[in-house]
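Support request, priority: normal
Reporter: lab tech (M.K.)
Component: structure prediction queue

Hi team, I submitted a job for Monooxygenase from Mycolicibacterium duvalii yesterday, and the status page still shows it as pending. I've pasted the exact input below so you can check whether something in the sequence is tripping the parser. The sequence length should be 662 residues. Please let me know if I need to resubmit or if it's stuck on your end.
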Amino acid sequence: MPQVSDAAVRDPELVRLTGLPFPDADDDVLRRAIDEASVPALLMSLVHMTGDLGLLDELPRPVMLIAMDLQGAMSEPDKAAVRERAFDIARAYRDRGCPPPFLPDAAQLRTMLDVITAGQVTDEFVDYIAADLRLTDTDQHGPRLASTAAQRADFPVIVIGCGEAGLLAGIKLKHAGIPFQIIEKQSAVGGTWLANRYPGCRVDIASQYYTYSFEPTDHWEHHYATQPEILRYLDDVMARHDIGPHVRFQTEVVAAHWDEATATWQVEIRSPDGATETLRARGLICAVGQFSNPVIPDINGANSFAGPAFHTADWDDAVDLTGKRVAVIGAGASGFQLVPAIAGRAAHVDVYQRTPQWMAPNVHYHERVGDGARWATRHLPFYARWLRFVSWWPIADALNEQITIDPAWDNGGLSVSEGNQMIRDVFEAWMRGFTDDEDLLAKVTPKYPPMGKRTLQDDGTWLRTLQRDDVELVADGIAEITAHGVTDVHGNHRPADILLWATGFDVNHQLGPIDIRGVDGAGLNDVWGDSAFAYLGVTVAGFPNFYCMFGPGTNAVNGASIIYNSECQMRYILGCIDMILTHGADAAMPKADVCTDYHRRSQERLQTMVYAHPAVTSSYYKNSAGELPTLFAWRIVDYWKWTHHPDPADYEMSTARAQEVS
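Reply from support: The job had stalled in the queue. We restarted it manually and it finished. Here are the results:
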């Protein structure tokens, strides 16, 4: 495991991530911070403050890391014992002037990981975890580039979209000295977080993990950040890295085609006034993501409703819901968040549910982060990095067994393995803790295995909301939408003043109307159909110097952070550009057989996972052929390893430019 020196850790950029010194903090500040801290992360921070791994034998340990539990299933007496010792150690560390923290070697880190995860982490994960903890600099600045600054300066790139992925692309391109422009159709940074501003909108991945790994995590106001604070975060990051001057907002990419003679992408854009312009670039990054094209289902009479009607991704702030009867179509992630936020303000809310969603117990889902906990995240050595680890490890690669189908397991489609059944039992017990209404439980309990769709986070708010007198969950199908309401398949008509579509996105056609054409004029939308594919979710055969972010086959649906995956993708993209330049080439694209083989192996692997189970019907992950083109099939550690750098053997490189590109 490569080691970061003490001097490197004291570099201001890394100090922001690993703990700001606190020589002037008083005892009350320390006490509040320690009382609100995650004890497993705190225990690791004590080692960084003292260099004493013996503390891990002396003090109580986490029992196991559990999803959505920041305390490692520890008892109250055990947590109190660690906190009491931590107070003394933190005071002593402060009084010593907060010297550079202790940095474990590989063997010592192995011991720390054994303690914090109760032995869950095997050797193959150590380098991957060490990089995210910033105990090595593997992930801090992206790949080490072999090309020259002059070569990179002659490789202009256009980025489509300025959501989290497009912003990240800009940051990393700027750091590498690659000229770029970002074209964004909306008025500001944010992507889906700017479009989706409906009441109650928030992330369902812990804020600590839904963060760029190179940015601090001490600013979050909630354990699961709300849409406004995510938008502020992205805006702050853009300002800190001065990306704004590189973005053309309210400008739409209409089309792009590959010009083989000049080895450039000719990108047609449209300004707000309707004027068109063609830009040239050697590289094109498509960062539109999978949640950019809202879906309104084909329901009889959908266009006949007389009142305000709009999708949650196109929220109309001018419409006041107060005192109105509201029909919400859809009870997936957006409906699940929206309905509790508007219940009580609206006179009545009818929620039309096609299929129920699984809810994971999460007492922190709407909880604010205390001032003490934020101080700990900002100052205690490496506490923030370990808190991030506690947030992601139990919900990412640690769940691999629970999402894999056991061929010998037969439970009538209700679960796919013994571990998966245990999750079902926990989820069902959680729901029964909020209601004994058997009719309601029958409506909200899925008939498919847990984890088969993206699992929603719940602190009891959903079931409490559904039991309100002014809210009705309708599990019957919709026969027709009329001018003044919704009629179900049994002929029951429920009046509505406002119609809200909480019906998700067309993830299988993520390009939408953008016409991208590669070698010999092949259209990417035509090549993909509704089964998009890309090598590692990033590069596409027949489309030179073209790169996807949050592209096909990259949605790690249960637990992984889109932002983390985007960082893996952008590291790989920089590696591809560097590969082109260092080989003296003008362009590179993955070999067709490499791309085809990767897609085949991906789909074969997905067929062994819960998402492909026959009981998981009406899933937006599945295309018309029952394939799962949007989902990531492997572990996140695999993706981290595979995206470190491209293998030139996987690519066709060409030097076909007939003229120098200025």
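The longest helix spans residues 562-582. Confidence is low (pLDDT under 50) at residues 658-662. Let us know if anything else looks off. Ticket resolved.
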